[in-house]
Amino acid sequence: xxxxxxxxxxxxxxxxxxxxxxxxxxxxxxxxxxxxxxxxxxxxxxxxxxxxxxxxxxxxxxxxxxxxxxxxxxxxxxxxxxxxxxxxxxxxxxxxxxxxxxxxxxxxxxxxxxxxxxxxxxxxxxxxxxxxxxxxxxxx
Amino acid sequence: xxxxxxxxxxxxxxxxxxxxxxxxxxxxxxxxxxxxxxxxxxxxxxxxxxxxxxxxxxxxxxxxxxxxxxxxxxxxxxxxxxxxxxxxxxxxxxxxxxxxxxxxxxxxxxxxxxxxxxxxxxxxxxxxxxxxxxxxxxxxxxxxxxxxxxxxxxxxxxxxxxxxxxxxxxxxxxxxxxxxxxxxxxxxxxxxxxxxxxxxxxxxxxxxxxxxxxxxxxxxxxxxxxxxxxxxxxxxxxxxxxxxxxxxxxxxxxxxxxxxxxxxxxxxxxxxxxxxxxxxxxxxxxxxxxxxxxxxxxxxxxxxxxxxxxxxxxxxxxxxxxxxxxxxxxxxxxxxxxxxxxxxxxxxxxxxxxxxxxxxxxxxxxxxxxxxxxxxxxxxxxxxxxxxxxxxxxxxxxxxxxxxxxxxxxxxxxxxxxxxxxxxxxxxxxxxxxxxxxxxxxxxxxxxxxxxxxxxxxxxxxxxxxxxxxxx
Lengths: 140, 472
Ligand code: B12
Fold this sequence. Notes:
The structure holds 2 protein chains of 2 kinds.
Chain A: E1 8-13, H1 21-32, E2 36-39, H2 46-56, E3 60-65, H3 70-74, H4 77-83, E4 90-95, H5 104-113, E5 118-119, H6 126-136
Parallel strand pairs in A: 1-2, 1-3, 3-4, 4-5
Chain B: E1 3-9, E2 13-20, E3 25-33, H1 40-55, E4 63-67, E5 74-79, H2 85-95, E6 99-105, H3 110-118, E7 123-126, H4 136-146, E8 154-156, H5 163-169, E9 175-177, H6 191-208, H7 212-217, E10 220-224, H8 225-238, E11 249-254, E12 259-264, E13 274-277, E14 284-289, H9 298-305, H10 307-314, H11 318-330, H12 341-362, E15 365-371, E16 374-380, E17 389-393, H13 403-407, E18 424-429, H14 435-441, H15 446-456, E19 458-464
Parallel strand pairs in B: 1-4, 4-10, 5-6, 5-7, 7-8, 8-9, 11-17, 13-16, 17-18
Antiparallel strand pairs in B: 1-2, 2-3, 11-12, 12-14, 15-16, 18-19
Helix pairs in contact in B: 4-5, 8-14, 9-12, 10-11, 10-12, 14-15
Bound molecules: cobalamin (B12).
């Protein structure tokens, strides 16, 4: 396990999504990489991410969505963060965020427009996300 | 014979209970109005006179007391997010037997500070931020408190990165630094705070409360009354090393001004398909319904249930209900008489409603979430459906004519199937009002206190959810 880098992440599976395995792997991988992870588990509401991010003073919120309703569940998330005083917090989303096989660049565009800083296609390995996190949060 | 005396300086009544430790029997008990205006010792003397008429003058080995006189242990809690550190602080204070006068979240405003200045608490609990988390808000709040003229003990139990700063900022106050009440997201750590509250109660609060005359008679006032009640219940549920307890329990204490609910139970989800959400809950949990009570707060019951429904349930008219509510809020010592069937029926309906409301607010809930793969259940709070004991206490209900039917309102109900209350339970009645006394006695003699409770609490038999009184 790498030494703690002092950066705090709040992670969880959004909405009514119960896919519990991926988020555990992400929790393990991010922790292993030196991040301080607060894992909210499955069926996480936008309010829960925000409450946890405020109390823990998180540097990033990582939203996972596997069941295809990610777009609906993520709507208004950035606005709610701003409202709660989390202006500028790093927002990532990934998993299987939309239904079926859609052109990912279109999907990415739509999530960017919703205020997500980075949008990851299905099958993104944890390593890729970790590299982006380190870059975006200025670690090492 | 080795008699000891246990005293409960209640908000309305001072109750004395004499116990013989050798024979393990209750020798007698008596009560008198609590006299906070002069010296609390006056009420005690009156109660002692009555007790002595009953059992004579005894040479007590020791006298122990608990107290909720003069408004109880008044606390203000401040935290960051309402459902996180503020809630953790609230749970900690309630479990320590405090009366929480206000809970503040985020930064204290000028108005909040004016309120604190005008109504300084006995203890202020300053929380906020998980360990390593937000430190700005708790630090700003410490600075705001430091500018007040009022002085009161402050327990600092927030983000560990901020507590040293807070302690320095609040150097004019008596401060106690404790481990964070919520060190990690949704993790509770309330024991250290509760110990700190207890020790401040012992050293500070008693002195300030007209206890001078009384305290010379006492070996000690150990704790706030609700804390004594809670520890009696924990003892009853868990037992001691040598004596088994009765198992997990759910208790309702119906008072004149408030109704308290207690659960001594884990309350974990019983099904793996249930997703648990929200703050972890303490094994020994106390909630207080400040708007629900049989006298001062009877109007609060009316606000929740509605006059029409109360009239229907009690076979009276809405006018009767209004009339009755006015009468009892004026005369707090009113006890319904049998030759007044309307008021005794209303009294029973109010008590049942108080039990129903307080138990529902205390117990956890289940929510259905519809997903494409079907229904998923989300649990918040404790699942008490498997709890097998319900205990009813409180001056306003222990003399009721049908306490069992009142207690049954704490059971699971088909009308509200998502409220996770016990499905089948043995109903117990604290007929002789001994819980607070036993909680105090347990400090020295836990085995005896437990055996006395098992002997003195009256079992009213098993009840199942289907027997809940409903009148549609
Ligand atoms: C097991 C499973 C279930 C189980 C879940 C059990 C549980 N509690 O965990 C059950 C049976 C309950 C289930 C139900 C459903 N499922 Co399902 N399920 C799967 C399955 C087979 C495996 C999921 C899994 O555990 N994978 C292993 C983990 C390690 O991988 P992962 O979850 O993908 O996570 C990794 C990456 O995605 C990534 N990642 C995840 N989040 C994020 C976030 C970021 C920011 C980043 C960078 C990366 C990232 O990192 C993770 C670790 O490597 C997948 C198919 C598949 N092979 O993936 C379908 C799948 C996810 N399910 C699917 C569907 C449709 C459903 C249902 C709607 C089915 C239905 N109609 O009933 C329901 C939804 C229930 C609900 N409310 O959530 C679809 C989703 C399709 C879509 N999005 O377009 C899939 C893809 C199957 C398919 N091909 O159709 N499912």
